[in-house]
Design brief:
It is built from twelve helices and ten strands. The protein has 423 residues and is α/β, with parallel strands linked by helices.
């Protein structure tokens, strides 16, 4: 009884402690942001290995970042552009939020100080090509390499420590192609898509950017938000988005690449799905069967009668000793020759096979009896006529039978036409 009471009190304290940590976490994040007690803050840092999960973002790929419910990763494309990028940087600093930026090589070349400010503030910096072409899905691989390498070269050149450049890449316009992704993955670069955008690159109002960001986040419950730090509408909408994230209980996650000194955060494969299946949720489809690699591929021998615990002498009829492939070819029947099915043209059999030749068959029969009739007796002429009529009736019956076996007996159309014309 005492033991059970101790267990109960221990469990109660555990639940209470977890509850306090959960409810106190926003305050703890704000405590890490001096001068801003109401800041949203950054809840945790997620370390990922690009080689283990090379494609992320459910807008285009099956996997996304292993986020928990109500966790968000903020990403910004196309910078640095001092007029607006500096304002975005200040808004994030006021909230102690760490984000991921995908820089364009030409922008980094023109504004290297903007890249250094991102690194100094502790943000993650990836690349977004050299010139932001919207045709990477149709480019020759040589041009793709030039775009990727140019972006990496000029962005890293703007940094005091080039090793700070993350091996993260977002394809401009999300115009993905297998060849582009294969090239990036071969270099150990992780391809980033997103889970939902806010359409801030379109000609919409800042309020519309805010609405789309929150609506799409609420629909998915977590994920990667795609924004642009070169747009005035993004600068105007971002404070409201952050304020609403805090009011709705969302947490910011900062993503960094794994290094030798900082290994990847332990995860399971199912966590990289946007909505992992649970024991209480039925799977809508059967899981894909993996491709097995067999160590040995030798064909197993066919079982014999001994394997069936049967004696060959007692049951010779169950399993033949020879297969058809092993049978003596001399015992097989010869193939029939073409002459076996040949029918001479102009014969009565050919004429009787068609309904159009009944008169011709009757005339042939009467002509065959004509020499006998010329010998002189009218009775024989009458008999020949009756015989001809019987022949005609036989021809009619034969034509019906021939129609039933039409597919088996070729129809002598040419001969029948000639005979009919003569008749």
């Amino acid at each position: 009884m005492i033991g059970s009471g101790v267990v109960f009190r221990t469990r109660s304290w555990t639940v209470l402690l977890l509850g306090l940590l959960t409810t106190a976490s926003p305050a703890a994040f704000a405590a890490d942001c001096p001068g801003h007690p109401d800041a949203l803050g950054t809840s945790r840092t997620l370390v990922v290995d690009p080689r283990e999960h090379p494609r992320i973002g459910t807008m285009q790929y099956r996997e996304t970042l292993p986020l928990k419910d109500h966790e968000v990763v903020l990403t910004f494309d196309d910078g640095p552009l001092p007029k607006y990028s500096n304002q975005v940087l200040q808004i994030l600093a006021d909230e102690c939020i760490k984000a991921t930026f995908f820089e364009i090589g030409e922008q980094a070349k023109a504004n290297p100080e903007g890249v250094r400010k991102l690194i100094a503030a502790g943000h993650t910096v990836g690349t977004h090509s050299m010139t932001h072409p919207l045709t990477m899905n149709r480019m020759p691989i040589e041009k793709v390499e030039a775009e990727v390498n140019g972006g990496i070269q000029w962005t890293s050149a703007a940094m005091t420590d080039p090793s700070k450049l993350a091996p993260f890449f977002r394809i401009p316009g999300l115009m993905r192609a297998d060849a582009v992704e294969d090239y990036l993955i071969s270099r150990g670069i992780q391809v980033w898509s997103a889970d939902f955008p806010a359409d801030d690159w379109r000609h919409v109002s800042p309020d519309r950017v805010y609405q789309l960001a929150i609506q799409r986040l609420e629909a998915k419950g977590k994920g990667i938000l795609l924004l642009h730090d070169i747009q005035a509408r993004t600068v105007a909408a971002l404070p409201k988005i952050i304020r609403d994230l805090k009011a709705r209980g969302y947490h910011i996650v900062h993503v960094v690449p794994a290094t030798a000194d900082q290994p990847a955060t332990p995860t399971t494969p199912v966590e990289w799905l946007l909505h992992p299946p649970t024991e209480t949720t039925p799977i809508a489809r059967w899981p894909q069967v993996p491709n097995f690699v067999f160590v040995q591929t030798a064909t197993l021998p066919a079982p014999g009668l001994a394997d069936l615990n049967a004696e060959t002498s007692h049951q010779p009829q169950l399993l033949p000793r020879r297969t058809m492939a092993q049978a003596d070819t001399a015992s097989t029947l010869p193939a029939p020759s073409r002459d076996l099915f040949a029918i001479p043209e102009g014969s009565v059999d050919v004429l009787l096979s068609t309904t159009l030749s009944r008169r011709a068959a009757t005339r042939l029969a009467m002509e065959a009896e004509a020499p006998r009739a010329g010998k002189g007796k009218a009775g024989s002429i009458k008999a020949s006529k009756m015989k001809a009529q019987r022949t005609a009736r036989a021809a009619h019956s034969a034509s019906k039978h021939a129609a039933q076996v039409k597919s088996a007996t070729p129809r002598p159309t040419h001969l029948a036409t000639r005979v009919k014309k003569r008749a």
